[in-house]
Each structure stands twice: as structure tokens, then as C-alpha cells.
Amino acid sequence: MLKLKSVIKGAGYILVHTPDMVLTSGTTQTTERTVNPDSPYLAELPGHIRSYEKVLEYYPNQVYIGNVTPGEFEAVPSPWHDKACPVTSRHGKFGEIMPQEEFLLLMQACDVFDLIKLEAGFVAAVKPALASDPVVSEDILARIPTGTPAEEIKRLVDEEHAEGLLHLGKLVGCMKRAHDIDVNLSAHVMLENIVSKASSVLALLHAVKNTGIGKAEIEYVIDCAEEACGDMNQRGGGSLAKSAAEIAGLTRATGSDCRGFCAGPAHAIVEAAALVTAGVYTAVAVTAGGCTAKLGMNGKDHIKKGLPVLEDMLGGFTVIISADDGVSPEINLDIVGRHTVGTGSSPQAVISSLVTEPLEKSGMKILDIDKFAPELQNPDITKPAGAGDVPLSNYKMIGALAAKRGEITPKDLDSFVKEHGLMGWAPTQGHIPSGVPYLGFAREDIISGKIKNAMVIGKGSLFLGRMTNLFDGVSFVVQKNSGVAQAALDEGAVKKLIAEALRGFAQSMLSEE
């Protein structure tokens, strides 16, 4: 029986600059405001917020949207916060960096319960800019009302527990609560969810544009962000996937959410590939929006070292997995690593379960993988916070296992890291860094022949949910297409195959007689 294949059809990557949300929504800041409202940190924080222009010239951001390749980025010495990238475009081949004011309007376009109110003058001033975005269609713009008086917005914030929406420190709107007593539908939680949804919509729109696939061709959407929507009767039981698909215009898609903390995207891509390979759907979009809670997460450490607050960006991505087209890189479901209940939590046990074990089962060595894409956190962010260079630590562990297996010598470790590793450029948005930022580049590198394959490694901290002490992880391999596209069979071809099978059966019966 012919085995179907699934491929990486394309991807979209977006960032949103949200300087005011750093101050009002990031968990580090909201917690500090509750515990110590007169905190020197909160007083000093506004002076360390970057402008949109500074965000555009930041090297890791330009890598994320595809204007700088990982190879070009590797040649630029770190740190990067004090350097200006020569490319400062808002738009890249994978997506864009949207400014905060336009994103607030996109959020309102994604609101179907009239919970977001934006001031009328603000809407009038910003809507033309959003309309010029090549992926924002007229039907999305039509969802944005003309606006609300400033006095009513202030009243909702002061008297109705609404969450204020600021731009450049000025109140320009609010998010209303969706229920009087349900904390799952509070204004703060609704803001987190609508931000995740809106950034997912933006990523979906770019992925559709980049792949050239028709919106009606996408049949299933899997959301793998770290937010979860629901009310008091089913916390997290809702579907951000289908809600984002609705606004993005994917009218023939259904969908569901996949949650796995930082490992969520890898889980979701394996699931999407399995659905396509099984023939259930021909095209699946794996998508994730940004997380307001992670904004300014390491802000205290950045300010202590005199740095700008580098976690001022929401991240989002969409990867479209489709049936084989004969060109795009295949997802090899015969090589899937998984951290099981019995794996253990030591770094060696985790990497062994995700790298060496699945490769061994397929008769492969570590050196048979051209590029590894584990947690690609930007070290500009993590090193000042004491977490070190996360990608480098992963590569050293993989290299150490290669040395232990006799594939390299210990003295070859540095060259292994350089040849098989990547510098981290992803924002610390939890689920965003785990391997997926490389898939857009990996697709190009495999098609061009620069590399033959890559392994994406997602890892997650399940213990954060206080339901288990277990770690989590999953990995998969994308590889060069074998070059034979699987064309869909028409009705006549199916009838012909059935007729041939029946003739063969009849002949075998006659020969037995």
C-alpha cells in the first residue's frame, strides 16, 4: 500500500512591538506592582523601553522575520543589543514586525463579543496604517468599529474592572471583563487570550501568503500557544485554533488546541504530520500567538545591567503541513523522539530520548543530522538573567553524546557545535523558541541543497502546572523530498484500480481450479 507523506509547505513568523504591554501586562511587572507598588524597578522601567525604530534595527528580530539568515547572523559577534542591523525593514520574507498601535486595532478586529473599546480618534488615526498591511484584508478592517468616547473608556476602567489599553503611556482603549465573577473571564485573562488570538491570526495570514495556498485548502488548524481559553466550567477547554481560523478566513477549517508548554509546537507538528500522512486532512496549519505574561520577564536583570528591556516583543508563527508536493521537505515520522514517563529528568536522559534513541532506531548517527534546532532562545536575553546561552548548552550536550558514542573526539566539540548548531534569535515567549523558528530557513536550506535534513527538538516543563514533576519533550526530522509527488486519484483512476484488482482476483481463482 502506498504510504502518504507530509511536507513543510511553508511558514509565517511575526513579531509585535508592545512597549506599553510590558508595563501593564508582563507578569514580572504586574506582580511587582501588587507586592511593591513603590518599587524602584517600576520607576526606572519606562526609561529602558525601546522605540519601534530600535526594535526594527535589532539583529535577532530581523532574523526572526527572515531578512537575515542564521549564517549571516552567526558572523555578527554578540551581544547584539548595542549593534544596529543594516536591514531595518518592517516586512521580511517570512512575516513582519507590527507596531503596537496597529496591533490594538487588529485585536479589536478579533473581538467577537464587543469586549474591546478603542477611542474614536485613535481608531481614525491608525486604521489607514493597518489598511496598508498587505495581509490585512477588507473583511478584517470592516470588523473594526468607529470608536468609543474617551470618557466612556475611562469610566469602564475606573468603575467596571476593565483593563486599560495604553499607547505611548496614554489610555486609548480598554478590555472589558466578560463575566462579573468568573476569574477565567476577567479583563486581564481576556486580554491575554485576545492578544494570543490576534497574533496567531497575523501569523496565519502571512503563512497563507507565503505558501500561496488557498485559504479554502486548509482543513485543520492546531493552536499550540501557552494560553488556554475557557470559563469556570471548563478552564482551558476552548479552541483558540478555530477562533483564529474564523478571523483569518479559513472557512473550510476546523481545529483544536494542543498544550505542552514549550514543547507544544513540536507535539502539534508531529500530530499535524500524522493527520496528513493518514489522509485525514490534506493541509493543516500549526499556529501560535504571543504571550503577554512573558513580556519583560527578565526586566529586572536587564535593568540592573544597564540594558534595554529586550522582552518587549510578542512572537507568533504558523507552519503549514500539507500532502506531498514533490518539492517541499518531508517530515519523517519514522524518526520521532519522545520523552516518556520513565525517561527521567537529567539533561543527558532528556537529550538521549530526543536525539540518540530515535536516530538509533532508524540506523542513523548524530552526525547524519546536518542541523539541530532545539531551544533557540536569544542569549542576549537569557545571559544577563543568569540562564546562560541556552542553544549552546543544548549543542554541547548533543556533542558530548556524539563523543561518548565515538562519532567525534572531545577536541572536535567546538567544530561540532559550529557545524550542526545555530545561534539563538527567538524571543523568550515560552513556546516560540523550541525549534520552530528554524523551520522557515530549514525548508529553504533543504530545497536549495545546502543541507539534507534537520532535527527540531521541543522541550517543556510540565511541572509548572503543579500536576506532575515530569519534564517533557518531542523531536522530529525534516528531510529532502524524495521527489515523487503523490497526485490525488480521480474517480476514473480509482475504478481502473478496482477493476484490475478484481481481474487479478478472478485469474487467481481460475488458476487454483
Rg on CA atoms, Å: 24 Å
Strand content: 15-25%
Strand runs, count: 13
Instruction: Give me the side-by-side strand order of the main sheet.
Output: 2-1-9-8-6-7
User: What's the total helix number?
Assistant: 20
How is the biggest beta sheet arranged? 6 strands, mixed
Global geometry = globular
Structural class by sheet pairing and helices: alpha/beta
Q: In percent, how helical is the residue content?
A: 25-40%
Query: Average pLDDT across residues?
Result: 94
List the helices and strands and how they pair.
Elements: E1 6-17, H1 19-25, H2 27-35, H3 40-44, H4 52-56, H5 59-64, H6 70-74, E2 95-98, H7 100-109, E3 116-118, H8 120-131, H9 138-141, H10 150-159, E4 163-167, E5 170-175, H11 187-211, E6 220-223, H12 240-248, E7 254-257, H13 264-277, E8 283-288, H14 299-304, E9 313-323, E10 330-338, H15 347-361, E11 371-373, H16 379-382, H17 390-404, H18 413-420, H19 439-448, E12 453-460, E13 472-479, H20 491-512
Parallel strand pairs: 1-2, 6-7, 6-8, 11-12
Antiparallel strand pairs: 1-9, 3-5, 4-5, 8-9, 10-13, 12-13
Helix pairs in contact: 7-8, 7-11, 11-12, 15-17, 17-18
